[in-house]
Automatic annotation (TrEMBL):
Taxonomic lineage of the native organism: Eukaryota, Fungi, Fungi incertae sedis, Mucoromycota, Mucoromycotina
Disordered: annotated span: 609-663
Protein name: Uncharacterized protein
InterPro entries per UniProt: SAPS (IPR007587)
Keyword Zinc (UniProt): no
The UniProt record lists the keyword Cell cycle: yes
Top-rank taxon: Eukaryota
Compositional bias (Low complexity): 646-655
Sorted UniProt keywords: Cell cycle
Membrane-crossing residue ranges in chain numbering: none
Length: 663
């Protein structure tokens, strides 16, 4: 035993002499008393005590890490391979205060762990920080000697690395992050096994997660959970760790910690962490394993907690983050490409999680719609305009309604004031293309569902057509809505031409302002679309037609590649596809496929594709149709008149429909 100690001391002394020689060549230093004393003792005696060995080792490591540019040569490597040397080395990273009582974090409740996570760390000792930094450089270096030490002493390193989370540690988390990241890159499987698979992921839940407010710790957790696949073994181990976290209730744990109102800083960190978990999971294979709880019965409880955090809180940053979480759950399963005529949604790893989230949200959509009204009970949208968070909520409503089976029930539960807010905001937000696109999609979806009570509220009671035309024709007004106005009015026109809705057909056939504006609508729409067909290069197909905000506006399962191939053909090969009526590229991109036999637009109108006439145009003249119509036909009409006229129009429409049924 003494011979081994003597050999170790000899190695240490040789390394020490080399260190001192290098140091003497660059700067004048004072040899530590402990080092000088150790040299005298070892020179005088053949046997050394345990205390002498340890003091010599401590002095050597400290002197090495105090250099401005320490080198890890072969002699230092030999020293670090000695028994107990890596333990001494890691004390400069963990920086434990041995005078404080040691705490077992696994035996503490979460509140106590949070309290310990806020303990003040001493960063005033510049020399200690310098040694910690150089130790970090040694443990994250990439030379042969660095990797040799890291591979041989891996478990010694990681066992001491997590001591930085103890309440008596003064370690620097930025140094921890760099070491942790390097070990994850070099030893992903071992790190996943050590941190997650062992001991019910005690290191994650008891040591790391209470420190989510530290960005370096949050980044470290995410880098490990979603480590990239460098080989099949890494992918297998990562998926195994995801399964283990699911079994341990990882998702439920995050959601529960988002409700800790007495710790707002931690709630914010937990919400940010949840957002990043969703984003990262959507980019790795089988990332949905972490969210399997949503597919079970507990999924309804999880979603209800998130919804309550939205509807029970006033407008705040906390509510905005929760809305963003729900939005990501609803949308992150679809990896959409750039908008083009050939763009098809691609199912991402969280596709079925998105569908499940939408199913869980269906019954809560009326509550979300009511939230818009409750936030503006005594004020209008001019004083309290829609925020970016409101637009995220609208996006959630749209996506959920789009894929829901109970579309009419959802629309029936939507408050009338919700549609008023949407329509008013379209005209007030003159430069918000994000909202204009959302509004257009919601209008198109509502028209496609064809639930007449909602259409009456949206189109009649809000005087939608008249307001759209007034906005478009007001040349003094600076607005970016005119393109969307053309799209909405063309949507109504094509819907009437295809006889998709008797109500819409009746409305626009007797609407004097629409009939007056129809030639302008066709002329301006043709002016926008005809240049697309002017591609004249021989043997070169024209670019795909872009005829709307996100063409083609078709349901995913009704838009195969074959249906969009005509949009890529040469203009000279498909002249019938030009124009803006049913059967044209324009109609297809707005969601209207080739009309079926018996419902197509009359032949004489289809033959005049570039004319100013539409099948929805009325031939009646001289009768004041605004009496039947019920919509405000002038900008100055009062809302009360609109409502009263709307009721009479509704009665007239219902009478006509009854006569048709009798026939």
């Amino acid at each position: 035993m003494n011979n081994d100690k003597n050999n170790a001391i000899t190695i240490i002394q040789e390394a020490e002499e080399e260190i001192l020689e290098e140091e003497a060549g660059s700067e004048v230093v004072e040899v530590l008393p402990e080092v000088a004393k150790a040299k005298e003792e070892t020179a005088a005696a053949t046997a050394v005590t345990e205390a002498t060995f340890k003091s010599t080792s401590v002095a050597l490591i400290e002197k090495l890490l105090q250099f401005s540019t320490p080198r890890l040569d072969s002699k230092i490597v030999n020293v670090l391979f000695l028994e107990g040397m890596m333990d001494i080395f890691m004390t400069h990273v963990s920086r434990l205060d041995l005078e404080q009582e040691k705490v077992d974090l696994e035996a503490c409740d979460f509140e106590t762990k949070l309290k310990y996570s806020k303990h003040k760390r001493n960063f005033d000792d510049i020399d200690a920080l310098k040694r910690s930094y150089h130790a970090m450089e040694f443990l994250s270096g990439t030379t042969a000697n660095h990797l040799w030490v890291q591979n041989a002493k891996f478990y010694d390193i990681v066992n001491h690395l997590f001591e930085m989370f103890l309440p008596n540690s003064h370690g620097n988390f930025n140094h921890f992050f760099k070491i942790f990241q390097h070990l994850v890159r070099r030893h992903p499987c071992d790190m996943l096994d050590f941190v997650i698979s062992r001991d019910n992921a005690s290191i994650v839940f008891n040591y790391m997660l209470p420190y989510l407010t530290e960005s370096a710790v949050m980044d470290s957790i995410l880098s490990l959970i979603f480590v990239r696949d460098i080989n099949p073994e890494t992918k297998q181990e990562r998926e195994k760790s995801h399964e283990r976290l699911y079994q341990l209730g990882f998702l439920e744990w995050i959601v529960s910690k988002m409700q800790m109102k007495e710790h707002p800083e931690y709630v914010e960190a937990a919400q940010e962490f949840f957002l990043r978990v969703i984003e990262e999971a959507s980019q790795v294979d089988n990332g949905d394993v972490l969210f399997k709880a949503l597919k079970e019965e507990k999924g309804a409880e999880i979603m209800q907690v998130l919804v309550k955090q939205v509807i029970n809180n006033p407008p705040s940053e906390e509510r905005e983050r929760t809305i963003n979480i729900i939005k990501l759950l609803v949308k992150s399963g679809m990896l959409t490409t750039r908008a083009s005529s050939l763009s098809q949604p691609v199912q991402g790893p969280l596709y079925y999680i998105s569908l499940r989230s939408q199913d869980l949200l269906v019954k809560h959509i009326p509550d979300f719609c009511t939230l818009f009204v409750n936030d503006r009970q005594s004020i209008n949208t001019k004083i309290a305009p829609l925020t970016t968070s409101d637009m995220d909520l609208l996006d959630i409503i749209y996506q959920t309604l789009y894929n829901a089976n109970e579309k009419t029930q959802m629309l029936a539960s939507t408050p009338t004031a919700f549609w008023k807010i949407l329509v008013n905001s379209f005209f007030e937000k003159s430069s918000s293309n994000i909202y204009h696109t959302l509004f257009y999609r919601i209008v198109c979806l509502t028209l496609a569902i064809n639930y007449e009570p909602t259409l009456i509220v949206l189109v009649r009671k809000q005087s939608l057509i008249t307001r759209l035309i007034d906005e478009y024709q007001d040349k003094k007004r600076i607005t970016e809505t005119r393109g969307f106005i053309l799209l909405i009015l063309n949507q109504l026109r094509l819907m009437a031409d295809a006889h998709h809705s008797d109500l819409i057909s009746r409305i626009i056939s007797v609407h004097p302002r629409y009939q007056e504006f129809l030639p302008t609508l066709r002329k301006d729409t043709l002016a926008q679309t005809e240049p697309i067909y002017a591609w004249k290069l021989e043997a070169c197909p024209r670019p795909p037609a872009h005829l709307g905000p996100t063409p083609p506006i078709q349901a995913v399962h009704f838009s195969p590649y074959s249906g969009t191939l005509p949009l890529m053909s040469n203009a000279n090969d498909n002249d019938d596809a030009s124009g803006i009526d049913l059967g044209s590229d324009f109609a297809f991109c707005l969601g209207f496929k080739e009309t079926e036999k018996g419902t197509e637009t009359p032949y004489e109108y289809l033959s005049r594709r570039n004319s100013d006439y539409s099948s929805s145009q009325s031939t009646s003249e001289g009768f004041p149709m605004d009496i039947i119509w019920g919509e405000s036909l002038t900008a100055n009409d009062s809302p009360s008149e609109d409502d009263s006229d709307g009721s009479s129009s509704s009665k007239s429409s219902s009478t006509k429909s009854k006569k048709k049924k009798r026939r």
